[in-house]
Design goal:
By secondary structure, this protein is α/β, with parallel strands linked by helices. It has helices spanning 13-28, 48-62, 77-86, 102-110, 180-192, 202-211, 220-228, 239-247, 277-287, 290-300, 313-319, 323-328, 334-351, and strands spanning 40-45, 69-74, 97-101, 138-150, 173-176, 215-217, 234-238, 252-255, 262-269, 303-304.
């Protein structure tokens, strides 16, 4: 694998401007608070089952049970990013740790909104898979975008991203707007074989929207419900999510795409001027705790970034990728992503999400 990996949502200029106003207003109201009290760590994270697992395996046993108070500032990534960028204007962050994917972390480092890490303060960082490391980012979990299908209803699943354009799948495919960026990369990859030619695939994606008419869901949980109730038979989503839903009882199987799966890495950064930097470093080290990561991997089916996480051979085979699959995982050029995410989000909203 290489260092580069994929981002999910970008942030539009309008959302940044909204964040400038909203972030300042939140601070003036003291939400979630202006500064960290001693032993208190404010964490910006996604909500839902992602946050539930964060609490269960990291925040409660390794931080709250040891005397820290965790204040959770939950929301979708574009809004959380915009808020952090807005707070540069007042030189004071309202959070101590922000959960991100690796490309959005790169973008925020370019914006000087997060710091380069002092890894000496994160002992567990030494055991992170080298290919996932970055000076400003604590890698945590990774996966890839695959084809998830109902094995009871789809006997011959699409073997590639390109086969999703086959008319026989009309009305049977589910997307989530959370992963809009992945679908745009998918279309560009099909057309050019490259991960830096998104514009080349836009016409094909419009064609897919018009002829196959994939059902669009707001988030992962809604897509899972669509698979469960038969609204859709195929989903294009993270391997980890497909394994989670199968573990919950849905009759699902995974097809690794012939083009190579689009990869994603999740983790966290420490904002510039985090009120409780010491607590933030304690949080970062807790994220990489080998026991916590093993528990997270078993519960979430994401592959752990810490090489010392103790997984059974069966679990590792299930959640990770084979050597041949790893050789074809598709990673992005971070700078390319950072330069274009705002326009990609605007394009998606106008041309695909509108339907």
């Amino acid at each position: 694998m290489t260092k580069n990996s994929l981002c999910i949502p970008g942030v539009s200029r309008r959302r940044v401007l909204q964040g400038l106003a909203g972030g300042a207003a939140a601070l003036s109201l003291g939400l979630p608070r202006l500064a960290s009290a001693a032993g208190s760590i404010v964490v910006s994270n996604w909500g839902g089952d992602w946050n539930d697992r964060t609490v269960k395996f990291v925040e409660k046993p390794l931080l709250e049970d040891k005397g820290y108070s965790i204040v959770r500032d939950l929301g979708m990534e574009p809004e959380r990013k915009a808020k952090l960028i807005a707070e540069k204007r007042i030189r004071r962050s309202s959070v101590d740790v922000i959960h991100l994917n690796s490309s959005d972390a790169f973008e925020l480092r370019q914006q000087d909104a997060v710091i380069d890490l002092d890894v000496a303060k994160i002992p567990n960082y030494a055991d992170v898979v080298p290919e996932l490391k970055a000076d400003y980012f604590v890698p945590w979990l990774y996966s890839g975008v695959v084809i998830i299908y109902n094995r009871d209803k789809v006997k011959e699943p699409p073997k590639s991203y390109a086969e999703l354009w086959d008319p026989k799948w009309a009305g049977r495919i589910g997307f989530t707007n959370q992963l809009y960026f992945n679908y745009m990369m998918m279309a560009g990859l099909i057309k050019t074989g490259k991960m830096t030619e998104v514009s080349a695939g836009q016409d094909a994606l419009v064609e897919l929207a018009e002829t196959i008419q994939p059902k669009l869901y707001a988030a992962h949980q809604q897509l899972a419900a669509g698979l469960a109730n038969g609204e859709v038979d195929i989903a294009v989503n993270y391997k980890a999510r497909g394994l989670q839903w199968a573990n919950d009882g849905l009759p699902l199987a995974i097809q690794y795409p012939e083009e190579g799966a689009i990869a994603v890495t999740f983790g966290a950064c420490i904002p510039q001027n985090a009120p409780n930097a010491e607590g933030a470093y304690a949080y970062a080290d807790a994220m990489l705790d080998p026991k916590a990561m093993a528990g997270l991997a078993e519960a979430s089916f994401y592959a752990p970034a810490n090489s010392k996480a103790t997984l059974s051979p069966e679990l590792r085979e299930k959640i990770d990728f084979s050597d041949s699959e790893k050789a074809t995982l598709r990673f992005l050029d971070y700078a390319y992503v950072a330069d274009h995410t705002a326009e990609w989000l605007e394009w998606w909203n106008k041309n695909v999400a509108r339907s």
